[in-house]
Amino acid sequence: MFEKLKNIIRKFVYSKITPPYIPASYSQAGEDAVLRFLFNDKGIRKISYLEIGTNIPDIDNNTYLFYKEGSRGVCVEADKTLIPAIKKIRPEDKVLNIGVSVSEHDEADFYIFDIRGINTFDKDEAEKREKFGTIKLLK
What we know:
alpha/beta, 2 domains, three-stranded parallel sheet
């Protein structure tokens, strides 16, 4: 009798409850989906963002999901070769071709590699990446 009741309850519960909605994500590890969940929980539907290091504007990107949903913000990218794609894919965002630093210097060396997304202002980090052997420092 108990087993029959369990089966009835199980059938009722599973027929009424749909699986959780799995949102699209454009981030590397789903960070944008987590943030959207948290914003929705707080009733925040449109956000403004400042994305430092936009890189490719619609792949492995933490703000593209929000852009697609109507939010707008500022995309900051130091690699000038990426700016045209950002402006094309995100025409309603403000795009700045600058670097961001915690130092007081107005200029810094920028190390550009043959794989996008790993460029850096950090000389030690650039040297480590180049020594690894699988990527090439372009300039």
